Amino acid sequence: MSVPGPLHFLVLGALMFCISVAGLFINRKNMIVLLMCIELMLLSVNMNFIAFAHHLGDATGQIFVLFILTIAAAETAIGLAILVVLIRKRDTINVADMDQLHG
């Protein structure tokens, strides 16, 4: 059995990124699915950082992943808080109903 090289992880990261972009364009209604697609996009970028960091023997990519995961956790907490407020005010999580929340 061969050990997967960096190319395998890069292809998997690219596939995950393409799936998340397709999910963003296909689904324009459900806010939870949109947030999940953004998280999948960030995780695919993290996979590429880790693959390159391991291949080059440098820990810089792993440090970037730590920062990205921290920012993603904060973004998820804020996004879910906005979703809770939206559900309480409108009883829906439909993105089209968010047109009155600006300005």
CATH architectural arrangement: Orthogonal Bundle
Helix content: over 70%
Order of helices and strands: HHH
Extract low-pLDDT stretches: none
Strand content: under 5%
Rough shape? elongated
User: What number of domains?
Assistant: 1
| CATH fold call | Helix Hairpins
Distance between the termini: 58 Å
Figure out the total of helices.
Answer: 3
Protein described:
- The chain starts with 5 loop residues before the first helix and ends in a 13-residue tail after the last helix.
- It is built from 3 helices and no strands.
- By secondary structure, the chain is mostly helical.
- The longest helix is centred in the last third of the chain and has 31 residues, at 60-90.
- It has one domain (6-98): Helix Hairpins, CATH 1.10.287.
Task: Give the SSE layout.
Blueprint: H1 6-26, H2 31-56, H3 60-90
